[in-house]
Amino acid sequence: MIGGLDVSYVKGDPVTACVGIVVCLFPSMKPIHVHTEIVQMTEPYISGYLGFKEANTIAEQIQHIKHERPNAYPDAFLIDGNGVLHPRRFGLACHVGVLTDHPTIGVAKSLHFVDGVHKNIKARCSTLLIKPGDVVPLSTDSEEIIGMALKPVAGVKNPIYISVGHRFDLETAVWLVKTCCHYRIPEPIRLADIYSRQHLQRMGFSKS
């Protein structure tokens, strides 16, 4: 089982949010458990420090599933955010993984500017990401590979950016994310985003 995690905020409110967690069977991606919870974030957002704002709250919701629905506790979590593809090599996916001591992978929709990783990356991706499953290594100025750009499915122009969060190697992380993609965003994260936004709407909040 693979879990996907996303946080949706109330429009114009940086504090009130909904944590969405969806657990899917692997590899079918059939959802078997949905957890949504309205939360109040206690820390401000500072660029590059998203983990300090969200990680503790996310970890609490993960622990809720572990204790209340142990049969639906996934083998790993895909997190909407970065892992080691981060200026301090410790993005949200790393933070959550360490707090829960559970395997995590960061899947980002946009690229962090990290130690030269961004250099010529748009041109390289445009040239090298031709068919679904194609990847481009994301290397720093010191030639350390800290992530992969992936073309997840046909007909998608923009790649997604995969990096290790906790207790994964990059090769396995990329394979797992590829297998989870029916659309651009891996299915567990895509569904977590949908359900978290729907829950905000049901509770009378405007979606961000």
Automatic annotation (TrEMBL):
Keywords: Cytoplasm, Endonuclease, Hydrolase, Nuclease. It is found in: Cytoplasm. Its main location: cytoplasm. It comes from Darwinula stevensoni. GO terms for molecular function: RNA endonuclease activity producing 5'-phosphomonoesters, hydrolytic mechanism; single-stranded RNA binding. The keyword Translocase does not apply. CDD domains: Endonuclease_V. InterPro entries: Endonuclease-V (IPR007581). GO terms for biological process: DNA repair. GO terms for cellular component: cytoplasm; nucleolus. This is Endonuclease V. The keyword Nuclease applies.
